[in-house]
Amino acid sequence: MGVMLQAFYWDCPREDKVECDWWGFVESRIKELGKAGFTALWLPPASKGANIGGMSMGYDVYDYFDLGKYDQKGSVKTWFGSETELRSLIKAAHGQKMRVYADLILNHNNGADAEEFNPIAGRNWWTKFTPKSNRFTRDWTCFNPSPYQELGTVTFGDMPDLCHINPRVSTGILNHAKWLIEEVGFDGFRYDFVKGFGAWIVRAIHDRHYERRGKTVDIFGIGECWAGDEFIDSWLDGVNRWSEHRVGAFDFPLRYRLKELCDSYGFSLKRLADGGVLMKDRPFEAVTFVDNHDFRGGGSGIDEIVNDKILAYAYILTHEGYPCVYWKDWFNYGLAQTGKPGGIERLVKIHESHAGGATNILYMNDLLYLMERTGAGSQPGLVFGLNNAGGTLRQWVQTGFCEKKLQPLAWYGTGVTEPQAITTGPGGWCEIEVPSRGYVVYGE
Q1: Of 139, 158, 159, whose CA–CA distance to 148 is shortest?
Q2: Tens digits of per-residue pLDDT, 166-184?
């Protein structure tokens, strides 16, 4: 499926000193990203936010059809730029054969123009939205509790939640998605906080036919279902059971397991073979990742991975699933390591050139994990080793590569030098050496 790049992080326009010019900043790196092997970009919410207390990351949607075109909420541009600049970025990405996914906020809104009395809730609420685009206007009946659906008044940050079964709301959402695909140029969506609304609205978006310049557009979708494996399974079933166009989900259970690998002393590598993660249970719907914009500190499970994060990337970029690389790790934290054997760049190239076919675990104990990808199509497969010990480890294993010379494609570890090539015997037997607290990838 390729490799996706999350092309933003929290407060990125300010942190990188490109306020209102993030789209241009990303576009200036498009050729580099295309050359590195990325096949898709996930962009931050593009619609005009409420901008309460300053410029917004867009998760407080005010005007769905203002991508930086109208003078409202304190600016014409969004914090990321103008609509023209966004369209230019998408065009540049398409020129590098990269798909572009929009971050879609369908649960809550903010920045209403007036308060209204909600007779069901018995209170006044900021629910009158009259945006300058004059498209997808909303009033109190568009939010819960409404005449169409009575739900509790608990909200996300006191932002009113949309009532999707109101025909006015569902029509507005479907028209917005169609506009983003057919006119703006997006190729799919990341759905924010999918636990906050029914799976049917995502299914409705994906079951619709889209065309751009007379050609059918097959869109891709990813749900942010921040939950355990069973809950994510249930959500995916709700979206995909009756749909021809399947949607994936971020593999949060795997991400937490990878954080333990990197940050917890004594983590047993046997746990990497356990189920309970999408990558194992539903690999064709698993979007694997290491960190994202929501992991920015504060405890309670939202801290970034700190130690040897490249081990987590080595895992997701050699295993099954659709891997997503985080902008901050690639650029700000310097983990790309362009031109070097131990960074994300080399692993992305290996994912695209070699990481095909089924996964076979060759050997594992608490400190050593060895597996192979069997290969598929033009991807010949690979052998991957992960070492969680304080010294080099060696192990004889039987691979599916019989009488082959396997070259070291990528490696990382304490005091590591370039590993030696391996020649497998008639039965595929060979000895794999993995550097201290590190990894190695072999392939033809």
Answers
A1: 139
A2: 999 999 999 999 999 999 9
3-class secondary-structure state, position 310: helix
Give dist(CA 435, CA 416) in Å, integer: 6
> What single-letter DSSP state applies at residue 331?
I
Helix axes of 167-179 and 199-207: crossing angle, nearest 10 degrees: 50
Q: What are phi and psi of 410, to 5 degrees?
A: -155, 150
Which pair of tokens denotes residue 305? 């991975």
For residue 314 the two structure tokens come to: 């080595």
DSSP string, 128-142: EB--TT-SS-B-GGG
Q: What sign does the CA torsion over 116, 119, 120, 124 have?
A: positive
Q: Where are the domains of the chain?
A: 4-353, 359-443
Distances (CA, A) of 64 to 24, 129, 186, 188: 21, 11, 14, 16
Phi, psi of 334 (to 5 degrees): 70, 25
> So what's the pLDDT on residue 152?
55
Give all strands (DSSP E) within 185-330, no chain letters: 188-191, 211-212, 215-216, 220-223, 248-250, 286-289, 322-326
4-353 has which CATH code? Answer: 3.20.20.80
DSSP H or E stretch at residue 68: none
The answer to whether the CB of 314 falls within 8 A of the CB of 439 is yes
Quote the pTM value. Answer: 0.97
Digit-coded pLDDT (tens) for 192-227: 999 999 999 999 999 999 999 999 999 999 999 999
Domain made up of 359-443: CATH architecture: Sandwich (2.60)
Question: What are 289-330's pLDDT values in tens digits?
Answer: 999 999 999 888 999 999 999 999 999 999 999 999 999 999
Joined tokens for residue 368: 């050593």
| Integer Cα distance of 357 and 375 in angstroms | 4
